[in-house]
Amino acid sequence: MRQQGRFAVTCAGALTVAVALGACGGSGDVDDGTAKITLWHGYTGAQTEAITALGKQWNAEHPDQAVTLVFDGGNDDVLQKTTAGFVAGNYPDVAYEYGSSVGPLSRQPRLADLTERSQDPAVDWDDFFPAVKDASTVNGKVVAVPALVDNLALVYNKDLFARAGIAEPTPDWTWQDFRQAAAALTDKEAGVYGWSYVNDGTEDTVWRYLAMLWQAGGELLTADNKKPAFNSAAGLAALNQLRDMAVTDRSVYLDTGNQNYSNLFADGKIGMLWTGPWDLSSFDKVHYGVVRLPGYNGNHESISGPDLYMMFNRSDRKTDTAWAFTTWLTSPKVHLEYAIQTGDLPLRTSETKLPEYRSTYLKKYPGAEEFTDNLDNVQHARPNIPEYSQVSQAVGEMVQSVLLGQAQPQEALDSATETVQSVLAGS
Amino acid sequence: MITAWARRRSTADHVSGWMLVAPSVLLIGLFGLVPLVWSFAMSFQRNDLQTPAEWVGLHNYDQMLGDPVLVAALRHTLIYTVLFVPLTLVGSLVVAGALNRNIRGISIYRLAVFVPVITSTVATGVIFNFLLDPEYGLANGLLEKVGLPAQGFFSDPDQALYAMVAMTVWGWIGFGALIYLAALQSVPKDLLEAAALDGCGPVRTFWQIQVPQLRPVTAFLTTWLIINALQLFDEVYVTTKGGPLHATTVVVYYLYQQAFQYFHAGYASALACLLFVVIVLVTLIQMRLTRANDESGAA
């Protein structure tokens, strides 16, 4: 029996053995009466080293509020693991979660409400970039401490621009400029494409579209998050742009996964990417430039995929520790120290004003400054609602059907609107 | 006296027997039966794994009736199974036939055929993603060399499911071939000698003497492959994630999406129950057919 044979059992197991154990009362659900806590993270490489060192430093200074750092196997499945943990009664006090997991976890009764704590002047909550502050908030309630912020900018291969004999992107580029450059860069003989779009239909497909939708003045959902709002002139303009480039011009490499595009860019096969700071370290052989996204009517909005520390309440004492540790970790000096080791972007405006930001951080990470500056272009946050993953799925399919030339933009919009409508209506 | 002694002896045997199997009984019970019963119970709940569950009776089953994605997933699973099982069977048989001989280096060939079976699904998926990449993949490179148009493979909604069949057949032929090879080697030698004396060539011997002897093994493999085809998941998860546009959304992948992406654990459990019933039915039909076949064969 190979892995697929085992899967049905594993799937049922994850769902239900967890339930069974939970019913018996897992030991992890019990408050041990101390202020010591456990933090789950999916850090690897330089990030693990940095967080481990900071954890040791904290524990030496706060023996009563010691933090045990537990590697949970990677960030991609942490939502699934924490959820199983709740069912089994064996959940962490703090978990590092993707921003898109806030919606599903907002239903969790154990989720700590941090609104009051965030008003403590010592924490200086407003110092966090707006993009992560919004992502930490559900219906006006603060439910998380920001852990990481990124955003999308235009990363381009300078050599390919020179070879095609066209001018490099400027911060004032329009969608039209972008489209023309992509077409000019595309060279089928040499296997070079102007742009690449992640076309696996997941959130990776969706968030690039959202940036375009927002630039064109559209919204994904209505302000009360009860109805779809993307079936608008803006939603159509964004899809038309994608169709014009992918179907009409054929200047876009459609990546069926989310891995190939970065390898191909690193190989000099792709002229431009809309990507984040996490990709830069694999482009060290490419002579690249970074500039904010091309805009629509002068709007160059970007989108952020922030990650968060979320706290699950066992006792007030433990949540005190969780709050104290995570806000210490994300305080300007400590976080900049961490960022220097890992290449993460600053989380707070004040970090960019510390001397080490210029003297050490920017020297070590060229390109990071454009991404930090681009945080000012993040104006919207994705809606933090429990149904977000289904909304995302519907929008992902809409974009995919247009990119593959399987549907006309308006027709795709109509069908996705209908799906999102029924998802939000709870059927 | 003797009876009492024998009875005591047999009780002792029972106890030690149960002690010996206890660990497996416990494990199978805990990880096999408990989940089975529990997901059956959960299929009558609205359960998001976060807030307290709510009993909703047959609502989840009712919802299945009007779910177009489920209908698509069932259709894809059916198409996949109908293609995957016979192709793997025939492929395995032919490969086993080719490997059933004494030539120099035969164990190397046998090993080579078996390698895909022990290769992890993730590795297989990544490699096929590269090979079948529409723009930069080796497969399209070869097609262009011989003057054929490039294909979309996993990125084309009309081809993705067939590309999935090709990838998994490749992965499973080694397993089928191994089982067939063992069976071929246990075909009585006198039958083969008799065939040779009657002037039967190697090809005819294979199809008319050896293959009919393989009926029980074929029955076993068919059931095994059908069950695995119905439970297809890993390959989909690592290559297409059910896409593009649901083209490779099969039942178990859809179940995963419902349970672990949308957190509709109740609905996902109902899907699991549906799949369970289908697999039980397939197995029963298969057993009945095999028995009928054996009886007619004996008569």
Automatic annotation (TrEMBL), chain A:
Leader sequence residues: 1-22
- Recite the UniProt keywords alphabetically: Signal, Transport
Lineage, top-rank taxon, reads: Bacteria
PROSITE patterns named among the record's database cross-references:
PROKAR_LIPOPROTEIN (PS51257)
- Database matches in InterPro entries: SBP (IPR006059)
Query: Carries keyword Secreted?
Result: no
Protein family = Belongs to the bacterial solute-binding protein 1 family.
PANTHER family, per this entry?
MALTOSE-BINDING PERIPLASMIC PROTEIN, MALTOSE_MALTODEXTRIN-BINDING PERIPLASMIC PROTEIN
Q: What is this protein called?
A: ABC transporter substrate-binding protein
This protein's species is Kineosporia mesophila
Automatic annotation (TrEMBL), chain B:
Against InterPro entries, the record matches this protein to: ABC_transporter_permease, MetI-like, MetI-like_sf
**CDD domains named among the record's database cross-references:** TM_PBP2
Membrane topology classification: Multi-pass membrane protein
Record key words, sorted: Cell membrane, Membrane, Transmembrane, Transmembrane helix, Transport
- SUPFAM superfamilies, alphabetically? MetI-like
Localisation: Cell membrane
Which PANTHER family does the record match to this protein? ABC TRANSPORTER PERMEASE PROTEIN (PTHR30193), INNER MEMBRANE ABC TRANSPORTER PERMEASE PROTEIN YCJO (PTHR30193:SF37)
Report the protein name in the record. Sugar ABC transporter permease
Protein source organism:
Kineosporia mesophila
Q: What is the lineage of its organism?
A: Bacteria, Bacillati, Actinomycetota, Actinomycetes, Kineosporiales
